[in-house]
Amino acid sequence: MFRPLASIALGLLIPLTVSAQASEGPKTSEARKSARLFRSQDPMVMTLSADFKTVFKDRDSLSTKTYPAKLTFTGEKGDTTTLDVQLSTRGHFRLRTCDFVPLKVAFNKEQTKGTVFNGESSFKLGTHCKNNDRYIQNTYVEYAANRMYNLLTPLSLKVRLAKVTWVDPNNPKFTVTQPGIWFEDEDEVVKAFGGKILMQQGGTGAQMEPHQMAINDVFQYFIGNTDFSVYALHNYRVMAQDSIGQYSAMAYDFDWSGLVNAPYAFPDIKLKERYRLTKVTDRLYRGVVCYKPELLNEVLGMFRTGKDSLLGTLSGIKELTPARYKEAEEFLGKFYKEIDDPKKVKEIFEEPCRRR
């Protein structure tokens, strides 16, 4: 059972139930404004200086340790600013696998005044994982996947590409410049909707707002991602909007998708055995909600009419090599061939749901 949070956490409880019918998605009273950092899509040029030998030794996913660092970046007017920040390591699988682990960057609010980080407490920074061409190119593709999701729904984490120069004052040979990804704070996202993050497992897709959930399900198939679970809150966050009695699901973390096709990624063993998935580029539709035809058609229509914009997130990244761009474009092209075939649409999105 997926129970509402206790009243001590959310105040007056309102029963949260949703019928699986077409709607307009999560409700917000105004166009969602993102943090200042994400209002530009120009890559941020920045340098991060710290004792990374010590920082990257912290591989405990439950660690609360922080490490001092200097963040120097080029501002909106071409000016250079240096901030004192605190770094902490984060993540799970990448925390164990990557040479450059994902980070959380915490700011001193007094120092951020007048900058793109003005008033912010912290942001997550995605890294290139390893100094390897495939990993570096995959960082750009992962960024594009997040931008595609942004184009489909406002209930998503905004992202911004960064050109990060990593410096360890104790090791001159360490210095390297590679891409990174800034991620919007999830709590700030849901505030724009008058909601709160619900960190309670047990929810199902059928209990989520149907329009947003349909976008999620089709998007996950679009990028070839099977590494998620609303029920277990794995690569999903659930937003509760008490004022209108609604749950909505927000997806994130797409590095295990077939689109990214990371060297470390592989299908879950249960999915591999049941559906004969041999690699992450094998698509599998994992939607468990039987959406009404008009809603499913509406969402598929969003992907059709938005094709140029969605693929444009890839073509707009000049650092992508022609070979990596072609690989990603061809992968997404297979999706479009499928949704242009009514028989395939029924086979992929309708029949499996009814069987389950």
Task: Outline the structure in words.
A hairpin with a 4-residue loop joins β9 (236-241) and β10. The protein has helices spanning 7-10, 52-55, 93-97, 109-112, 133-152, 186-191, 210-222, 269-275, 293-305, 307-315, 322-339, 342-355; strands at residues 44-50, 67-74, 80-89, 103-107, 122-126, 159-167, 176-183, 196-197, 236-241, 246-251. Mean pLDDT is 91; it is low at 1-22. The strands form 2 sheets. It has a 7-stranded mixed barrel with strand order 1-2-3-4-5-7-6. With 356 residues, the protein is of the alpha+beta class. The chain starts with 6 loop residues before the first helix and ends with a helix.
In short:
The protein has 356 residues and is an alpha+beta fold. The chain has helices at residues 7-10, 52-55, 93-97, 109-112, 133-152, 186-191, 210-222, 269-275, 293-305, 307-315, 322-339, 342-355; strands spanning 44-50, 67-74, 80-89, 103-107, 122-126, 159-167, 176-183, 196-197, 236-241, 246-251. It is globular, with a radius of gyration of 21 Å.
